[in-house]
Amino acid sequence: MKIRTLIATNAALLLVVAFSSQAADKILFRAKPGKDMKMRLEGTSTVHDWQVEGPIIGGSLEVGAGFPTEPGQAATPGKMDAIADVRIPVNSLKSIEKDGKPYSDKMDEIMIGKLKCPPNRFITFHLTELVLKETAKAKDAPYIFEAKGELAVAGTTNKITMPVEITPLGDKKLKITGTTSVSMKDYGVEAPVLVGILSTGDKVKLIFDWPVVAAAPAAAK
Amino acid sequence: MNEATDMNDHDVKAADTNRRDFLKGGSVATLMGLMGGVRLFGQTAAEPAPVGKPAVAKYKVGVIGLGRWGREVLNTLALAPQAAVGAYQVEVAAICDNYPSSVRRAGEVVPGAAKTEDYKVILENKDIPAVIISTPTHKHKDIVLAALKAGKHVYCEAPLANNLADAREIALAAKAFPRQIFQAGLQDFSDPERTFLLPFIRSGGLGKNVMTRAQFHKKYSWRQQSPNTQREKDINWCLDKTVSLGLLGEVGIHPLGQAAWFLNAKPAAITAFGSILVYTDDGRDVADTVQAICEFPGGIRMTYDVTLGNSFDGNYEMFYGTDGALMLRDSKAWMFKETDAALGGWEVYASKTRFYNETGIALMAGASKGKVSTPTAAEESPALKNPLFYSLGNFVRNSSDYTNAIADYTANFGDDQDGLLKHLNENVHKRAAAGFLEGYQATVTAVKASEAALTGKRVEIAPDLYELK
Predict the structure, then answer these.
(1) Cα dihedral B139, B142, B145, B149 sign
(2) Contact by Cβ (8 Å): B60, B129
(3) Cα R_g (chain B), whole angstroms
(4) A193:B50 CB<8 A
(5) What's the Cα-to-Cα distance from A29 to each of A66, A88, A213, A215, rounded to whole Å?
(6) A with B: how many residue pairs have Cβ under 8 Å apart?
(7) What chain B residue is nearest to A197 in terms of C-alpha separation?
(8) Given phi > 0 = left and psi -120 to 50 = alpha, else beta, which region is B247?
(9) What secondary structure letter does DSSP report for B238?
(10) B427 touches A: beta carbon within 8 Å
(11) Taking every pair of C-alpha atoms in chain A, what is the biggest distance, in angstroms?
(12) Element (H, E) at A71
């Protein structure tokens, strides 16, 4: 009995040590608000192209060992240990002119309505798989990934795959950028039609710049 | 929010626009003139309605003070709530007045609103993020200070107060709460017509400014009746010089404030003469007729006359320059060009209106960049689209944007105060509105103008009086 107890205790200790070691390898990055953060939507219409921007992309990214977090860090292509949850407040999205000036409150009103906010206050993305496709070609160059996940818009969730570029900036900062295109119909969003004036195209391009910074480790209890 | 950013970015940028930009912006409008009429309108009113009904969230406001102007505020909010606030349908969730009959009467306009005689009840209600304060001028201060302390966005009617000390206290309190919108009830600052004309005048569209003139002519007593003697005294506070700034302060604050805004200058002195000529036996001690000369730096003067004894020609404001004169009536504008002024080209196509021997070239705001410029029926309705409508609409939009931005930011990044203020200043587009500084400065002018009317003397206004320290 004593030997069995010893073995069980040692096994449990090993598990705890292994788990602790694994947890210690994880790095949690949180969204860092500022001028570099931008969510942009681009679309077409029968009259002119339109664009919408928002300054808030909230959420976090947690990565495990082997993920390139520093400039020029060696990394092996393949599936990465990474999870992320991202959310964009619908109310923060505003239509703009090509030069960045505010476009129209009416357009914002229509968009918010079409995105069914309320009750869907956020557009969310849950990362389910991140695969490193290409390592950085230079110290300040991005690593090229393929991201798979669930994108929820206007209360409808679909699986998507999109290319993502991640550039380690040093000081535990990452610049994450990406572009993908979605069909509004896939999310149950009717293309807005303005009486006798214009109708918008179904495809919308999503472009994001998402700076994140490593969160300070939690203080020991 | 500091003093520099208190006035919305749109206005500041607009003021920097040059004359060429203005004329370029009006080019589509002028083409419309070929069809027989061009007038200056704002972009927001000209946009088409969407097919289908978007989801509408309610944005709750409380209205405190239900006298003559408070009812005007309620009626404006009740007439066109959706148009006023876009995706946020304004809901007057509570109304307050210390006189029960006023609450009952106002309640007929907004039957769903909670009714109270104690404004603190509204301030304690966490579901109401914004309040509109339309009490008598001398009663603003305590309510504004309490509302700001309670975390509300505040719309305070102009003048902010009936004396400089109270006005300064209100403005400084508003400055101390940068997470909250404070809007002074200078509704002209939100009028699309006027925000369009601002860069035109400031950039020399009228040539060299030489003078300005305004009038308010109306045949009415300014008195309200009540069967209750004390109540009648209370509701006619504006006829009592111990608490009222009189016609020049209470009514004149708008054209005086507008002139300062357009000319980008503060009055340096005011001379005024007031008399009680018509309503000599109703106990009032404020003048029913006042004439004033307001001196701006650089030798430009504004003459303003206001009377309750004659209604001829109503209300309007004029700005005179070496190239032409601009007339503003309600939310419409016309330019009268001098014969020796250079032709810009656009005038040829613009709509013209005859005014006796003169031809007014009508101007239309925002009819550019492919936006629809045809006036809608609603646009033509002064009841719906007057400066108060735009002013209240912009207040609710700005307030709801702040409420949302704060909620979104803190939900994602926590309660980082510096970061949040940066976010509000950099990322939230505020619609045209008079802030605490504009409200304070216009109140300084109104108080001094009232002083001039009471004394019949020239009252100088030191430049540092306009500074908010």
Answers:
(1) negative
(2) yes
(3) 22
(4) yes
(5) 15, 17, 5, 5
(6) 92
(7) B48
(8) alpha
(9) G
(10) yes
(11) 85
(12) none
Task: Decide: helix, strand or coil at residue B313.
Answer: coil
The token pair that represents A40 in the structure block: 């942009």
Omega within 30 of 0 (cis) for the link into B136 = no
- Let me know: does A168 contact A70? Beta carbons within 8 Å: yes
Cβ neighbours of residue B444 under 8 Å, at least 6 residues apart? Answer: B164, B167, B461, B465, B466
Cross-strand partners of A122: A89
pLDDT in tens, B33-83: 322 222 333 333 333 333 334 445 678 999 999 999 999 999 988 765 454
Contact B429 A94 (CB under 8 A): yes
Please tell me which of the candidates B44, B47, B55 has its beta carbon nearest to residue A113: B55
Instruction: Give B249's DSSP letter.
Output: I
Give this complex's ipTM.
Answer: 0.81
How far is the C-alpha of A153 from the C-alpha of A120, rounded, in Å?
Answer: 8
Determine the Cα–Cα distance for residues B55 and B58; give it in Å rounded to an integer. 10
Helix extents (H) in B34-139 = 68-79, 81-85, 100-107, 119-124
Under DSSP, the state recorded for B48 is P
In one-letter notation, the amino acid at residue B429 is H
| Contacts for B387 with CB less than 8 Å, ≥ 6 apart | B187, B188, B190, B191, B194, B331
- Which residues from chain B sit within 8 angstroms of residue A189, using beta carbons? none
Q: In what order do the strands lie in the sheet with B114-116?
A: B114-116, B88-96, B57-64, B130-133, B153-157, B182-185
CB proximity list for B212: less than 8 A, separation 6 or greater: B259, B262, B263, B300, B301, B302, B303, B317, B318, B319, B320
How many distinct helices (H) and strands (E) make up chain B?
18, 16
- Asked if A58's CB is within 8 angstroms of B413's CB, the reply is yes
Residue B18 pLDDT > 90: no
Convert B93-115 to b/e letters by CB count within 10 Å (16 or more is b). Answer: bbbbbbbeebbeebbebbeebbb
What residues of chain A lie within 8 A of the CB of B50, using their CB? 106, 109-110, 113, 192-195
pLDDT tens-digit readout, B199-231: 999 999 999 999 999 999 999 999 999 888 888
CB A93 within 8 A of CB A79: no
Question: What pLDDT band is residue B409 in, cutting at 50, 70 and 90?
Answer: very high
Beta carbons of B29 and B350 less than 8 angstroms apart: yes
Other C-beta atoms lying within 10 Å of the C-beta of residue B156? 29
Contact assessment for residue B206 and residue B34, using Cβ atoms and an 8 Å cutoff? no
B64 φ/ψ angles, rounded to the nearest 5 degrees: -115, 120
* Residue B96, min C-alpha distance to chain A (Å): 29
| Cross-strand pairs, B12 | none
B378 Cβ under 8 Å from any chain A Cβ: no
Look at residue B282 and tell me whether its pLDDT is greater than 50: yes
Pairwise CA distance, residues A5 & A116, whole Å: 58
Phi, then psi, of B277 in degrees rounded to 5: -110, -30
Domains in chain A: ranges and CATH:
27-214 (2.40.128.110)
Q: Do A47 and B405 touch (CB under 8 A)?
A: no
pTM reported for the whole predicted model: 0.83
B47 part of contact set with chain A, CB < 8 Å: yes
Beta-bridge mates of residue B294 = B270, B302
| Chain A hits for B411, Cβ within 8 Å | 58, 89
